Amino acid sequence: MENDAAIGAYEYTCYRINNGFVKGIHLVNRKELTFLERIYIFEAFKGILITSTHFFKNIFLHTAHLLGFLKGQSAAVTIQYPDEKREYAPRLRTRHRLVQREDGSPRCVACMLCETVCPAKCIYIIAGEDPDPNIEKVAKKFDIDLGKCVYCGFCVEVCPEDAIRMDTQIMDIAAYSREEMLLDMDELLHPGSRKNG
User: Rounded to whole angstroms, how far apart are CA atoms 73 and 142?
Assistant: First the structure.
């Protein structure tokens, strides 16, 4: 936890750990405001100038787009979701997927670690025997309830087989019912296969 505050010309930051113990204090000299900054009039005009510049630039570009010019130049920084989608960072935790072996079977060995560690209790696994004697167990059923999932990533971290990942880059999980929020093994093996997913 981090707490910021200002005292006089100083700014201090208290770093805390979970039990509330203060870890350290960092003092920083704050820059003194000039006379023009303290009366705020020129700073207000600077803000209005920046806002007006963006406003008239966007009006010009939107008008040019209507007339068929400058189509390659975006008229606003706003992303028009869902027509436009932002590119997410690779490490962002997104919708789950089950990793497959070379033969297409799930890599999961139904050790139940992910189901046990899940704080939201949203993973449901039914284990079964695998015909391959080298594999002790296999997941016959593997469901994740996205309506309960908190995207903590514990299931990914605890898996000893690297069988579950959260790297599908799928963020839109909206559905019309709670039943549609439940992902079964087929959807986890083939992310995005659902029509509304």
Answer: 46
